[in-house]
Structure formats: C-alpha cells, structure tokens
Design a protein that fits this description.
Length: 260
C-alpha cells in the first residue's frame, strides 16, 4: 500500500532534522557547548592556542580535537567568522514543548518572550542573553521566519544558547493560546499602543507574563496582535526614535520583573 503524501513528507522532515548539524565557533560558545551534557557533539576543530585555553572543557567533554593550522582553519565556516581558533559541530538542542518549559518553578513568577518574525541571529542571540539574565522560562519563535540556531547566534548569546530554552514552534498564535491556558497574560510590544508596559503591570507583577515582540520595521503581525491580551509600549522620555528589538526585549523584561 502506497504511503499518503503527508506521511512521506513527515518522514522526510524527520530525517532532515536528524541530519541537521550546526557549527558553533568562538571560545565562549565552544566552551559552553563542551560543558553542556545535553549537547550532542560531533567534531571539534581547534588551533593549538585555542586547545590550551579550552583544556579543562575538552577534558570534561571526552572529545578528541582535530588540531588545525590557523591560516587554513579546517572547519567549514564563513571566512568572516571570528572563530578564535575554535569550532564545534553539534546537533541542535531540543528543549521540549511549551507546556514543559513554561511551567513556573517553585516560588517563581514566570516570564516568557515570544518573537514574531525576528530573523537576525544577532538580535535573537542578544535576546537569549537578556532572557537568561532576567530568568525567563523560554524564548519562543516560529519555525519559519525566525533565526535558527547558528554559530553567529550562539556567539552573540555568549553561552546563553546552552542554558536558555529557545523553542521554535509550528504556529506562534497556537503557542500564545497555550500560554494563555496556562494563566499567562500576553502583552504585545507596539510603539503605537496607548498603554505603557509599566501601567499594564500594575497589580499584575505576580502573574505569569508573556512578552511578544515583532521584527524591527513591520512589528507584530495582525494575527499576533489580535491574539495578545493587551498592546503596550515602552515609556520613552524623548521622541528620538525606537529601540531595536533586542534592547526592547531587555527593557520589557526588566519592567515586567522589577516589582516582584
């Protein structure tokens, strides 16, 4: 019996996902990945200098590095990558479901960041770093039109990629509805909103909050806006422009947690 088309496509997608690998680069990103027991590590390429700097992490990982000439670095990286003589091929991390990752820990009032079409890996890396600093449960983005796990993202995240859950979901609106069913308030960041995030948080500091941010320029999609409970803005003191999305995420996380 011939398999239905959807079954064939699902199997192909699963095989492609299993075959996907990522090259991390830079001393910080490689060190943190070597020290992360959840990482599936495949190939480690180092210069002698980088090997000496990462000696403890290499020993803990049990990997045998390939030593490469810095002038002809063997890892298949973009020539513009600032790799510092260290590159590690890995499988992407799998963080589980929204329900698993966004439950509150004991004594914690959870915060979650959702990204709508934020495709710049440097912005996403910076957001992961801020999310870790402010104790967010996860950063969530759609599988399409979002930044995948890459070496550039990991380097910008400065280790946060190994510790801060980054969930890429099939449908962002569905993930938002899941969070709502878990008790989250969904606050969408919109520069034209009539309410500031500080005002919206009044009396709600003890509630789970999901902060939804859009790409610079187009902002949130209409469907995403409609799914939010409220649209809010960051209270700016001057009319000099707007923050980029990574800075806006950091300010919004701070505003949503400072009264806990």
């Amino acid at each position: 019996m011939k398999k239905p088309k959807w079954v064939i496509e699902k199997e192909q997608s699963r095989r492609a996902s299993a075959a996907e690998t990522v090259w991390l680069f830079g001393l910080h990103a490689v060190r943190d990945a070597l020290e992360n027991p959840a990482r599936e590590r495949l190939r480690l390429v180092l210069t002698l200098n980088a090997q000496s700097k990462l000696a403890d992490a290499i020993a803990a990982s049990g990997m045998e590095p390939e030593i490469s000439d810095p002038r002809k670095f063997a890892a298949p990286l973009d020539p513009q990558s600032v790799h510092q003589g260290a590159a590690l091929e890995v499988k992407p991390l799998h963080w589980g479901s929204v329900e698993e990752r966004c439950l509150a820990a004991d004594g914690q009032t959870p915060r979650v960041v959702l990204l709508d079409r934020v495709t710049d890996p440097h912005n996403v890396g910076a957001i992961l770093r801020s999310a870790e600093v402010f104790g967010a449960r996860a950063v969530i983005a759609p599988q399409r039109q979002s930044a995948p796990e890459t070496g550039a993202l990991a380097k910008t995240a400065s280790g946060a990629l190994e510790r801060q859950p980054y969930l890429r979901v099939k449908n962002l609106a569905n993930a938002m509805e899941t969070l709502r069913s878990m008790g989250y308030i969904l606050l969408g960041l919109d520069g034209e909103a009539g309410t500031t995030i500080d005002a919206a948080m009044q009396g709600r500091a003890d509630r789970p909050v999901a902060l939804v941010l859009g790409a610079e320029g187009p902002g949130l999609r209409e469907k995403t806006k409609e799914t939010c409970d409220m649209l809010v803005k960051i209270d700016a003191k001057g009319a000099f422009g707007s923050l980029n999305v990574s800075n806006a995420a950091a300010v919004a996380l701070y505003a949503s947690t400072r009264d806990e």
